[in-house]
Amino acid sequence: MKEILEDFLVKDDIGYYCRYGNFYIDAMYPAEKNIISHAHGDHATNGHQKMYATAATFAFMKNKFPKMVENNLEVIAFGSTFPLESVSVTFFPAGHILGSAQVLMEYQGVRYLYTGDYKLQEDATCERIVLTQADVLITESTFANPAVSHPDVEKEILKLKDRPSNIMLGCYTLGKAQRLTALINDLLPEREVLVHHKMYAVHKLYDILGRKPLRYTLYNRKAMKDGSTNKIYLVPPLTFNSYFKAKNVLKAFASGWERLQRQNDIEIYISDHVDWADILRYVEQVEPQQIWTIHGDGRYLKKHFEGKLIVRDILSI
């Protein structure tokens, strides 16, 4: 019988460390070798001696870190396998944002699958998640709570329909903004999408690397104030919060978090993470013997699978 190593991947002060391959995943501080699951700031940092990620992830990181050293970057294609000492590593699409990867690690016949952030919902702007089986599932648990159920995305976007006002829509700059643009383009073609200047460069990268053409223009004050009130202005969180006294617009923030819906004019529950039902569907497909939880609270998963699967938080050292 294959032996699952309880310390195969552990959490330390730098990130998630695999001593059997001498590498980190999503290290927050400089490391010798670091696998980067996707380009969001809580997963992707610069300054490592060697970095492994998809081409799209590196493109977004270069936009944020213009001085990244090319010689330190190892571009990994989805489905290709590469060795890190005695560990074989393969990337599979995670469906979270463009270029986001699940990291499958194989060692002594045991398959350990690190999800990074992932979603099962449809998203035309990024790769669809690819399901693969593993002995140990190392899953994010951001919304691993039976009380959380993400609503239908199309119904949420249609909340913006027939509003007699321009709309300021808060969202994250990378991934969420492009997904929202595509949804608005498709479902609310009468609405013009304006994007904040910090989002504009990322939209341009999606134009080059992405899977769906996007229609949008760079925000300018005159365009927002003049003409028809058919505009949806996408802004990042800090800008959204700074406009709390904005007049003549309806305010909404696209997120799975209830706390970010408070005091807005419209509630828009759109998340790029799995909810409770999707986590359970995902576990059925992966068929793990053990589940190790990261990025959230794994207590509900542990209770749900009690007597069936070992569920625990990842070990910390």
Describe this structure in words.
This protein has 317 residues and is of the alpha/beta class. It folds into 2 domains: 10-146 and 273-313, Metallo-beta-lactamase, Chain A (4-Layer Sandwich); 153-268, Rossmann fold (3-Layer(aba) Sandwich), CATH 3.40.50.12650. The chain contains 8 helices and 19 strands. It has helices at residues 55-64, 153-157, 176-187, 197-209, 221-225, 237-242, 276-286, 299-304, and strands at 10-11, 16-18, 23-25, 33-35, 50-53, 73-75, 81-84, 87-93, 101-107, 110-114, 136-141, 166-170, 192-195, 217-218, 231-235, 249-254, 266-268, 290-296, 310-313. Strand 9 (101-107) and strand 10 (110-114) form a beta hairpin. Helix 1 (55-64) runs antiparallel to helix 4 (197-209). The protein is globular and about 70 Å long. The two termini are 27 Å apart. One of its GO terms (molecular function) is exonuclease activity. Residues 35-163 form the Metallo-beta-lactamase domain. This is Exonuclease. InterPro entries: MBL, Metallo-B-lactamas, RibonucZ/Hydroxyglut_hydro.
Q: Quickly count the helices.
A: 8
CATH class of the largest domain: Alpha Beta
Average residue-wise pLDDT: 96
Structural class: alpha/beta
Instruction: Using the coordinates shown, work out and report the CATH topology of the largest domain.
Output: Metallo-beta-lactamase, Chain A
Ends distance: 27 Å
CATH homologous superfamily designation of the largest domain? Ribonuclease Z/Hydroxyacylglutathione hydrolase-like
The largest sheet is: 7 strands, mixed
Strand order of the largest sheet: 7-8-9-10-11-18-19
Number of domains as seen in the coordinates: 2
Coarse morphology: globular
Unreliable sequence segments: none
CATH architecture of the largest domain: 4-Layer Sandwich
